[in-house]
Amino acid sequence: MSRSARACGLKLRSGVYLAVSGPSYETPAEIRAFGRLGADAVGMSTVYETIALRDLGVRVLGLSCITNVGAGIEGCVLDHEHVQEVARATRHKLESLVLCLIQHLA
After folding, report:
1. What domains sit in the chain, N to C, each tagged with a CATH number?
2. Burial profile 22-40: b = 16 or more Cβ within 10 angstroms, e = fewer
3. I need a labelling partner for 68 at 20 to 30 A (CA). Which of 13, 27, 52, 91 fits?
């Protein structure tokens, strides 16, 4: 994956992803607690889909786009419109990465 990202000129980061059920943003207290537990990112997707696919015997490669900082971090106020805006702005990078991955896997 990192080789594909480099080929596309993208910088990836890896870390511990903590899944929550949602659908709501985490509170500042939850973000602090999750950080103490070792989480680098928190999200409402990816993990549940992965569990379902693995139960079916499917090999999974998970990609996540972090669209907002956690509540209480950097004085940021969570706003769904902003999250959608960031997702739209980074869409092309994710598309590029997926195409590079396909080329390297082929």
Report:
1. 2-105 (3.40.50.1580)
2. eeebbeeebbeebeeeebe
3. 52
Residue corresponding to tokens 């598309």: 95
Burial call 65-88: b when 16+ CB within 10 Å, e when fewer: ebbbebbbeeeeeeeeeeeeeeee
What is the rounded distance in angstroms from the CA atom of residue 56 to the CA atom of residue 73?
Answer: 38
Is residue 26 annotated as part of the catalytic site, yes or no? yes
26, 49, 85, 95: which one is catalytic?
26
Q: Phi/psi at 42 (nearest 5 deg)?
A: -130, 140
Rounded to a whole number of angstroms, the CA Rg of the chain reads 15
